[in-house]
Write a structure and sequence with these properties.
28% helix; single chain; Rossmann fold; nine-stranded mixed β-sheet; globular; two-stranded antiparallel ribbon; 2 domains; alpha/beta
Length: 255
Amino acid sequence: MSQVIACYKWVADEADIRINADLSVDLSKAKGKISDYDKNVIEAAVQAAAALGGKAVGVTFGTADAKPSLKDALSRGLDEACYINAQEASQADGAATARALAAAIKKIADVGLIICAEGASDTYSRQTAPRIGALLDLPVVTSVSKMDINGNILTAARKLDDCMQTVKVELPAVVAVLPEINPAPIPGLKAVLAAGKKTVTELKAADLGADLTPRSTVSEVKGYVMNRKNIIFNEGDLAEQVKALAAALRKEGVL
């Protein structure tokens, strides 16, 4: 029986984030949530596990604040969850996160497929899947918008900048999926109640045997301000104004 791993992240809800007058970022009232893109990952893992006749297992790396994510993740169809509860997660970069996840995945038997989002909704660094693949010596397929599994062969459609690419890979493998891979259904009451009865394995940093020291650190977080050009096209008649607008957009590379 092949296990399908869904890697997900507990992040601050961007709807609750406030930018102060000095552009400092106020997270004091921000509640946590599963990264929006990772909700698609969980559903993709559930579907892949059904195709492989195995279990869908969620794996997350976070501080004690991430514990509420478990019930939400399990209510979305996962069979089990593995929670790496480590304070190191608060300062972790892409390298440390991948090492933690890879170490936890090594403890799970018969892993056939590891699914990550292309990026998390807070940082969108696009590092997790490639780093896990390198650490576990597995093939990696990124930017996946569709995938099909036939036996131990996964066929993936990759959405690139100017084309679509179809690739085949032999499992086990790591896949980074885009949000359009599938919808992320909202769990019903029955699923939420059942989530509390599912198996959760909690690991501490010491259990991993991995170096969780970040390779980079965040020195400051500032809000972003976009300074618009505020160009007004009011010369000539309407047709001339539209022509001038189109010319300006072409110059900026929009058209």
